[in-house]
Amino acid sequence: MSTESTIHDSIEAAATSVNSTWPIHSFVTANPLAGFEDLPFEEAVSRAAGLLGGHGYPSAETFRKALDRGQIDPERLEAELAEAGFEGDPEAHLARIAEARTAAERGPDTPADRVDRILVKWLSAFLDEGSAHWSMPNREAGFYAAFRGMAGHDGTIPDEGVVTALPESPIETITTVLEPYPEGQWPAVFEAQLAALPGWTGVIKQRIEEGGSWQSTYPVSLEGYLAVRLALADALGVDLTPDRDAPESDPADELAGAFLRAWEATYRDELVGAVADEAASMADADAGGRPDAQLVFCIDTRSEVIRRHIEAVGDYETYGYAGFFGIPMEYQEYDSDVWVKACPPILDPQHRIPDFPTDAETKANHDRWWSVREAADEVIESLEANAATAYGFVESAGSGYGLALAARTLVPGRVHDWVDALRASVPDEEEFCDPVVHHQHTYSGDLPVGLTDDEKVEYAATAFELMGWETFGRLVVFTGHASETANNPYAASLDCGACAGNPGGPSARVLAAICNDDDVRTALRDRGFDIPEDTLFVAGEHNTTTDEVELFGDVPESHAADLARLRADLETARETATAERAETMDADADSGVRETQRRAADWAETRPEWGLAGNAGFVVGPRALTSGLDLDGRSFLHSYDWATDPDGDALEAILTGPMVVTQWINSQYYFSTVDNAVYGSGSKVTHNPVGNIGVYQGNGGDLMTGLPLQSLLAADDEPYHQPLRLSTVVHAPVDRVTDVLTAHEALAQLLDNEWLSLTVVDPTEDNRAFRYDGGLEWTPAFEPAAARVETPDPAVADD
C-alpha cells in the first residue's frame, strides 16, 4: 500500500472521533460522541474528556436539584452507590463530584491557540455558504490550493518552515511536517489535530459525506485541512508529539455514574409501570367505532402534548410515525432554486419531488406578491453591501425601520397578527401547487423525479404496517411539523429532525397524494389494507411554537362538514395545549395562544419554545398504551401493533431506524446540558453567526456544535432539561425483540454499551416487563397491577 493511501486511511480512522456537524440552516441533531459508541458509555466519556475536554456527567448541583425535587429515588440511589462500592451520605459524594468538576484555570496563550485563530479565519472565508459579498479568491481549486496560493499575503503567518514553499500535494506537506516524528505516532497526531477544532472538522466531514453543490463547487478534504493545519503548526513551532497517557478512571465520574443511573431508573420505573398497567387494561377496553378523523403526527416529543389535547375534544385517533412519513426525498418549493433534503441523516434521498403549479389564477396572484418581496430583498441586500448607499437610505427611510424594530420589540404579538394578515392575502404554494408525485421518467441530478407506481404502494403500505393500521376514518390527516421564530439562527433545530431540520409539511403532502391515488388504493387492498371509498387523505402541518395545526387544500363537498368540524376542534385543542406550554415557560396559562404568538414574532426572544427539551422516553406500541397518560411532552411515541406484525419486520424497521435517531437526539440534549461549553453552543446572547454554516461565541474560535443554553435551562442556575439517557419501552414479545437484536449487531452493541436502555412489555407474558441486561439477556423488571398477587398475611390466613 502506498504512503498516500496509508495516510488517507489513517486520517479517515482518526476522523471518527469527531462527529459530523450540519450547517446551522439545516440543523440536524446528533450524538457528539457518535465516534465512541462502540465503547461502553463510561469509557467513551472518559476518552472524549481526554480528547475534546468535555465533561460526561451532570454537575453535582444538577444532581442535588434532582434529589430535592424527588426526581431521584433515595432508595435507588443508595442501591446504585452501594453497587459501585460507595457508602455514606449522598451529600458528601456530591461534594466530591463538585470538587473534581471545578475547572482548572486556563493557562497563557500557546502556539497551538495561535494556529486555531489563523486557521479559523481561513476556514470561515472558504466554507462560507453565501453570506460573504466578496468571495475568497480561487475557492474553486479547493481549500488547500486556495490557501497555498494566498498564504504569503497573510501577515499573521510567520515566514518559517514548510509554509514558505508549500508543496502542490497536501499529502507531501503532511509527510514533510511529520518527518521528525515516528510514523507510529502519526495516527494519534491526526486524531489530536482533527479534534482541536471539532466544530470546523465536523462541518468539513459533513460536507464531504453529503456532497452537494457547495462541496462540488468549492471542494475541501480532510487531507487538505490537515495539511494547512500542520503547515501552520510547523511555522509556529508547535510540538505535535501526542499525549499517549490513557485517561485514568476518575472516582468522581464513578460516583456521578451511580447518581445518573439512579436518576434514570427512577424515571424509567415510572414510565414502564404506567405503560405496563395500561397494557394490562387494554384487553378489557371496548373496541370503539369508526373515529371522526385520524391524525398522524411525528414521533417528536412535542406531538405528545397536542395529541392529548386533540383526543380530548372529539372522537379522534392519533398515531405516531417518523415525520418524513417514510419518503426518502429531496424537495423543491415552487419559488426556490434549492433542493432540500427531507429525510433523516441515517438515509440517503431516493427521489426528487418538486412543487408544480396547478391553478394559473392563484399562481399569478402569488407571483405578483412574490416579485415585490424579491425586489425588497434585493434592495436590502444592496444596502447591506454598500455603506454609502445605506447612509442615504437611512436618512430617508430610517424612521420606518426604527418603527418596525420598535414594534418587534414592544408589541411582537401585534406584529404576529400583521404577518398573519399579510400571509392570508398572499396565496401559499399549497393553494396552487401539487407535489410531482407521479414518476416523470426523468432525472434531476442523480435522482429520479417522482415515484413509480410500485414505490408509491410500498411507501403507503410500509406506513400502515409500521403503525399497525386496521380501521380508516372518513378523514386521515398526515401532519408534519415546523416551528415559527424570528431572528433565530437555531430555527432549524426546532423544525423536523426526521426531515433533516426542515419543515415536515411537504412530506405530509406527498404521502397524502400517494394515498389518494385510486391505483395505489386498489393495490393496497391486495396488501390487506381495505381503505373505504369515503376515506380522504389530507395533509397538514403542526406549528410547534404556537400549536396551530394548518390543514392544506380543499376537500370535496362530501367532506366539507367533517373538515370544518375538525378545524374548529383543532383550534380548541390549540387553546388548551398552549395553556399547558405557557406554564412550562412561566407564562400566563390563560393567554397561551397570545403568549406563543408573541414568542414566535419577538425578534429578541431567546426561547421561542422548548423544542425537544425534557426528552427522556421512547414508547413503541399502540396509542392505547399512552392515551390515558400525561407524559409531560417527554416521550417520543411511535405507533406499533405487535399483533399485525407476525414476522417482526415492522418492529425491526422501528428499532433500527427511529429508535437510533431518537437516541442521537437524546444524546445531543444530554451532552449539551452536561457540558454546554464543549458540547453545546453557549448563550444566544453572545452568538455570532458565520458564513451561514454555524455560530461562534463572540468574535471567533471554533464553531459551536450543540444546543444553546436557552434551549436547556429555564434560568442560569435552573435546569429545564433533565440530562438522562433514553429509556425505550416496546410493547412486543421479548423473543421478537431478541431476534431483531441478534440480526443487528450494531444495535445490540449500542444497548450493551448503555447508550440507552430498553424495556419490553410482553403481551404474551401477561404484559410483564423485562429489561434488556446486555448480551441478549433479559431481567424481569415490573409486573402490571393486574398481574400482581399479594402474599396473604399469615395471621389473617390462620383466622
Describe the structure.
- There is one protein chain.
- The chain starts with a helix and ends with a helix.
- The protein is an alpha/beta fold and 799 residues long.
- The chain is built from 28 helices and 21 strands.
- Among the domains are: 3-25 and 111-235, no CATH class; 291-358 and 432-608, no CATH class; 373-425, no CATH class.
- Mean pLDDT is 89; it is low at 788-799.
- A six-stranded mixed β-sheet has the order 13-12-18-19-20-21, sandwiched between helices.
Helix and strand layout, with pairings?
Layout: H1 3-15, H2 41-52, H3 60-68, H4 74-83, H5 90-101, H6 111-126, H7 143-150, H8 170-178, H9 186-196, H10 198-210, H11 212-217, H12 222-235, H13 251-282, E1 293-297, H14 301-313, E2 316-320, E3 329-332, E4 340-341, E5 351-357, H15 360-385, H16 387-410, H17 412-425, E6 433-435, E7 443-444, E8 447-448, H18 453-467, E9 475-482, H19 505-515, H20 518-526, E10 536-543, E11 549-551, H21 560-584, H22 592-601, E12 617-620, E13 635-638, H23 649-656, H24 658-674, H25 676-679, E14 687-690, E15 694-697, E16 713-715, E17 718-719, E18 726-731, H26 734-743, H27 745-752, E19 756-762, E20 768-774, E21 777-782, H28 794-798
Parallel strand pairs: 1-2, 1-9, 3-5, 9-10, 12-13, 12-18, 18-19
Antiparallel strand pairs: 3-4, 5-6, 7-8, 10-11, 14-15, 16-17, 19-20, 20-21
